[in-house]
Amino acid sequence: MTTNPSNTGLADKMRRGAVLAAACPSRKILNHVTSRWGVLVLLALGRGTHRFAELRRAVGGVSEKMLAQTLQCLEADGFVKRIAYPVVPPHVEYSLTPLGEELSIRVEGLTDWIEENLPRIMESRPVSE
Amino acid sequence: MTTNPSNTGLADKMRRGAVLAAACPSRKILNHVTSRWGVLVLLALGRGTHRFAELRRAVGGVSEKMLAQTLQCLEADGFVKRIAYPVVPPHVEYSLTPLGEELSIRVEGLTDWIEENLPRIMESRPVSE
DNA sequence: GTAAGTACACACTAAAAGGTAAGTACTATG
DNA sequence: CATAGTACTTACCTTTTAGTGTGTACTTAC
After folding, report:
1. Which nucleotides of C are covered by protein (CB under 7 A)?
2. Is the domain defined by B22-124 classed in CATH 3.40.50.1110?
């Protein structure tokens, strides 16, 4: 195990710690993914195709504006696929792309761990709130 | 594979989708972890113990104020251990708790995936920026 | 005919997050 | 003896994020 960052190889550093550099483009993607609603939308879509209003109900507390914004952002990153049927009233379906599926697995890994370990986490917190 | 969220069992829903509920306490923890600097600090500390100034240099772009705030937050959640040696000039060491180690593995899973797939992601983006 | 639902966009405002600069108390280095 | 380094905190200000309310164009249910 490395206890000091300076004893990892340079190639390894480039490969695995690039996000730590401010200028790295993966920073932007990371920020989209870990945004307040991005994580939750990815999680919800991991369970299957949803319509806009369904997503809004699934993701507790999200506003229409933020949901629309988040979806557009994730779509631009290639994680979400949007299919609009030209009918009236409008019918739009959101789902994950293959890229999005892969990503949502990692996001789920994170959120599942938090949920499962919530008792341990709460326990280790000093007091209140 | 479930394509519709309504055909998952209720117990399963409770266990795996609790974050989707606005009132769930795991929401708060998730927000701490996925905060702009939280992810990066967890990542940096995953490589070993760091002093404050070392962390500041490791995490590109973070200000002293935000680093201090982030560390206090992660410490309160039980992910980070702070050891202050009563010497002058001050000497403080930050490291991950066992809980933090487990968490940082999931965070790394996410960031490593993003870094590795950055070419694919950029490719799938329509244009510019 | 009125209300609700569909999938948003837009304008305006409120709140939260984050940056900058300064200060602290002391030491080591040049 | 001035400068830099240590680990922060505080005040102030800017930027970003998010909420609220409105409008659209049309349909279905009551």
Report:
1. 5-11, 17-22, 25-27
2. no
